[in-house]
Write a structure and sequence with these properties.
57% helix; mainly alpha; 109 residues; 6 helices
Amino acid sequence: MLAAMPSETSRRLELFRLALSLIDRGKSEIPSPLSVHFDDVLHQARKLSDDPNAISPGIKPQAVQLANELRIYVGLRDALTGINSIGDVSQAIARQVLRNLEPGIASQD
């Protein structure tokens, strides 16, 4: 039964990845709660990657995870350049971001 549970690695950034995966698969409308979550995580992660001391109780755990990825992977930072909200993410950008996430997290499509 435990073997059927998703690993910690597969759960990291799951909602952020879900939004990107939906766009990558051609979905034009992302549910509002998921869009808001994506935008919050992106903005908080950028703030944390610029200033790790900006951590506070209101920061989402996925933002901390993404901030760490942004600090480590230049390709991920580059892929998200100019993206201020989920509305700025095209199918090509979504694919590029997914490929530049940590290899253990990235989509295998």
